[in-house]
Structure formats: structure tokens, C-alpha cells
Amino acid sequence: MNLLLCHATEDADFAGRLLADLGELGVRRGGLDDAATVLALASRAALGSAAFREPLLHARGRGLSVIVTLLDECELPASLAASPIVDFRDADRYGAAFYRLCARLGLRPFGSDEASQVARPKKWHCIFCGWRCSDPSNNSYLCHRCQRLRPLMADSCTCIQCLLCNELSLAAGSYCEWCGERLGAIEA
Asked: Fewer Cβ within 10 Å of end Cβ, the chain: N or C?
């Protein structure tokens, strides 16, 4: 799947992270000619930028669907407010927002279709504080935020199913290891 990504220069770091994460799922950055969907990274900086608005106008003219990823508090124009919106304003909840975006795109970001109690994500969230380890080579299993060790998951461990991503995490934790959502709670 190819996506056209529209964003302000000021949002390039976030755009790079999002593209890298989507790239692991086989998504590539495309142009107007080969994109199936447009991701509009909406921020105050983007809404004031012609470099953000012009590709959106062309994409709408071609009938491409648009998904808005909200990066900060900003007033969306009516043309964007009518599109599906995924809220990325809280950096600590990136995993949950990423999961919602993947669902909008028809992608399954975590695990395989056959869930297993011992399946572990490569990019994991600390089950105690929700911090996201974005480096799959970080096999120290040490959370860089709360300094707690990532517990071992085995066949006989007690797990709870996340209400957002439906994956299993250790019941002793407060956050889903897969998407970072607080266990037992889901926002509409």
C-alpha cells in the first residue's frame, strides 16, 4: 500500500517515525499517481503551509480518501474535519493512536492472526508505565522511563486481553505491551 503523506516541515520528525512504523507493515510513501490514501498530519504549522494544503487539494480532486492525524490543537477546515481523524496529540499514547490509524488503513500492526500467550512484540511498551521501546535491538528488557524489567511471559502466566488491540499482555501490568493502551480502559 502506498500513502501520500502531507505535513509541514516542522513535523518532519513525527512523519519520519510514522513512516518507519508503517513501513514495517509494508506501507510505502507514494505520490499523487500511486497513493491509495492520503495521511494529512494536521498541526498549526501544517494548516498555515501551502506545501501542506496544495497536495491535499490535488488528492481530493483525484478522489483519494483522506485520514487526518491530529498532531496538536488546531482548528481543522471543514474539508478535513469531515475526514476520519486519529488523535496523536498525546505522545505517551502513540501506540494506541498508531493502532487506531492501522485499523483505519485495514492493517493489523501487532502480532499474527493466531494470538499466543507467548507472542511478544518487537517494539514493546512497558507494562508498568506505558513507555514505548521503539528500538527492536533493545533486548535489555529494561524500561528506560521507570527502570523496571520487562517480565518473562511463559505458557502458564496470567494474561489479560487488551480492549483496544485484542492482544494478550501480562495481567500484572497496567499497560498493554503491544499498543500501550491502559489495560481495562478504552477511550471512544
From this structure: C
Residue 137 confidence (pLDDT): 64
Please name the residue that has the C-alpha cell 493502532. 99
| 164 CB burial (10 A radius; 0-12, 13-18, 19+) | buried
**CA pseudo-torsion sign 114, 115, 120, 126:** positive
List, in order, residues 6 or more apart from 122 with CB less than 8 Å away. Answer: 136
- Judging by beta carbons within 10 Å of its beta carbon (0-12, 13-18, 19+), is residue 12 exposed, middle or buried? exposed
Q: Which residues of the chain have pLDDT under 70?
A: 109-119, 136-140, 154-156, 185-188
* pLDDT for res 76: 92
- Tell me the sheet residues that pair with 112: none
